[in-house]
UniProtKB/TrEMBL annotation:
Name recorded for this polypeptide: Xyloglucan endotransglucosylase/hydrolase
Keywords per UniProt: Apoplast, Cell wall, Cell wall biogenesis/degradation, Disulfide bond, Glycoprotein, Glycosidase, Hydrolase, Secreted, Signal, Transferase
Residues carrying a glycan: 123
Residues forming the catalytic site: 115, 119
SUPFAM superfamilies: Concanavalin A-like lectins/glucanases
Origin species: Urochloa decumbens
Length: 296
């Protein structure tokens, strides 16, 4: 809010009134600010998780200790949106731990369960951190892609995003796409289209598989482990001009293609991808590759 500076001819009582108005305006703006705990809630787990202010930014410290991991979920759900969260991962020896940021519906039978997963797999000190991504539709997942990060995600916050629109699910890190799962229902490819989803996150022990296939276990002498979440944002999907809502966008529309930087995606996948289920011959040679892995 812009306020004009008082002129030298203002009387003292007018200066005092202007000063009081400025203080009230600042206080009102601060009161109107959204806090993280207004948008998300701790939903399960250890009592050592907590909200706190970090350099005037409301932050959630998710905890894993010997008794339990912990998790949160958002209060609101959406059908098609972009979801952003700034996350700083478990430092030092995080082997066996998994932090997550994902989308899920409200409680539904598993055969209707959709889910879009970012999972951050811990590792021994100095080893690269692995990003594990997956998409579940109607209770079936198995669509894993994994990446090594090109930075240390434990030193500072980075923005992890899931863009979900009727044509793509796009995974992004600091606005750089790392994966795009395309809606190709015309060929029988499952894609979540009908139920709204809310954001969730967790920190838990997965030492049986998380680090080098379970060969490196959790060092419980290091507990408690913490991962940090802040700056949660949701941007609802916007359709092309003249279309009522995103679900009405025509399948042949190129409107959502502008949301995907194909060149940046190709570069990350060439340089940082370490696993793609669509190239796993040991897994699919006998049963056949999923439809989305085959040429149209």
């Amino acid at each position: 809010m812009a306020m004009a500076l008082p002129s030298s001819s203002c009387k003292p009582h007018r200066l005092l009134a202007l000063a009081l108005l400025l203080v009230l305006a600042m206080a009102s703006a601060k009161a109107a600010a959204a806090y993280l705990y207004d948008d998300i809630k701790l939903s399960w787990g250890s009592g050592c998780s907590y909200f706190y202010m970090d350099e005037d930014v409301d932050t959630l410290a998710l905890c894993l200790d010997r008794s339990s991991g912990s998790g949160f979920s958002s209060n609101a759900s959406h059908l098609y949106a972009r979801y952003d969260m700034d996350i700083k991962l478990v430092p030092d020896n995080s082997a066996g731990t998994v932090a997550t940021f994902y989308l899920m519906p409200d409680d539904v039978p598993w055969e209707y369960h959709d889910e879009v997963d970012f999972e951050f797999l811990g590792n021994a000190t100095g080893e690269p951190k692995t990003i594990h991504t997956n998409v579940y539709v109607n209770g079936a997942g198995g669509r894993e892609q994994q990446f090594h990060l090109w930075f240390d995600p434990t030193l500072d916050f980075h923005t992890y995003s899931i863009e979900w629109n009727p044509k793509y699910i796009i995974f992004l890190i600091d606005d750089t796409p790392i994966r795009a799962y395309k809606n190709d229902q015309a060929r029988g490819v499952p894609f979540p289209t009908w139920q709204s989803m809310r954001v969730a996150g967790s920190l838990w022990d997965a030492e049986e598989w998380a680090t080098q296939g379970g060969r490196v276990k959790t060092d419980w002498s290091q507990v408690p482990f913490y991962a940090y979440y802040r700056n949660f944002r949701v941007t609802p999907c916007v359709p092309s001009p003249g279309v009522a809502w995103c679900g009405d966008e025509a399948p042949e529309s190129a409107w959502f293609d502008q949301r995907l930087d194909a060149a940046a995606l190709q570069k990350v996948q060439a340089e940082n991808m370490i696993y793609d289920y669509c190239t796993d011959h040991k897994r699919f040679d006998e049963t056949g590759f999923p439809v989305e892995c085959t040429a149209a």
